[in-house]
Amino acid sequence: MTMTTHTAGLGLYTGGELDEARITLSQFVFDQAKTTALDVGFGYQPASDAPTTYDGLREAYATSQQTGQALPISNQHSDDVIFTSPEANIAHRFVHDVHHCRLGLDFGLIDELELAIWHLDQLEDAGYERGTLEWTLFHADLVGQIQINAFAKRFPDDQRQFGIDCAVLGFERGVLAELRRAR
User: Fold this and answer.
1) CA angle 24, 26, 32 (to 5 degrees)
2) Mean pLDDT of 44-52
3) Are 175 and 144 in contact, with CB atoms under 8 Å apart?
4) CB atoms within 10 A of CB 113
5) Which of 51, 75, 134, 169 could join 46 via S-S bond, C-beta 3.0 to 4.6 A?
6) Phi, psi dihedrals of residue 43, rounded to the nearest 5°
7) Containing domain of residue 160, as a range?
């Protein structure tokens, strides 16, 4: 059996280690979604017509608060993600969208960065400190996507590969590789 080893500024990662970290992150976001649903009193429903603006999200959030009906969460662009499944990505989006509203953070880059830091704080509180592979992948998914959006006005084409590139090449090189990939 051949084992692929990736060299990164943070150490050596095998394909198995990357897969394990992705599995751990997926379980983390499912747990966060469950806790969030209990806290707010409603769950989520994957939807192709979920709100795409902050005002639209706040309106849908208010409706869910009043009625208890599930918050519609976008199921678009969830195939190639850092998590192990589209369902895990949607669970993360639920937590993300709810906390946009709970923390009063809009969709601008500065507020997105503040929310990314909040997510990373939650991961650290769960025992995955800065520098762990889980933290590195989540950081790439959260902060890296903000940088791609700031520079190129888009999101990474393949979010899974982007996160792995950031872990393997180092964060800045992963961002640069993505920016150059779609020029």
Assistant:
1) 105
2) 97
3) yes
4) 16
5) 75
6) -105, -150
7) 5-181
Among residues 81, 98, 83, 79, which one has the least CA distance to residue 34? 98
Average of per-residue pLDDT across 125-133: 96
154: how many CB neighbours lie within 10 A of its CB?
12
Report how far residue 34's alpha carbon sits from residue 32's, in angstroms, rounded to the nearest whole number. 5
pLDDT at 4 over 50: no
HEC sequence for 88-129? HHHHHHHHHHHHHHHCCCCCCHHHHHHHHHHHHHHHHHCCCC
> Phi and psi (nearest 5°) for 78?
-115, 15
d(C-alpha 52, C-alpha 64), whole Å:
16
- Let me know how many helices (H) and strands (E) the chain has, helices first: 8, 4
Number of folded domains that form the chain: 1
Gap between the Cα atoms of 153 and 98, Å rounded? 24
| 91 token code pair | 């669970």
Range list of H helices, 15-53: 15-40
Which has the closest alpha carbon to 122: 108, 102, 106, 107?
A: 102
Strand-strand pairing, 5-8 and 11-14: antiparallel
Q: Which 8-state DSSP code applies to residue 156? A: -
pLDDT digits (tens, 9 = 90+) for 18-28: 999 999 999 99
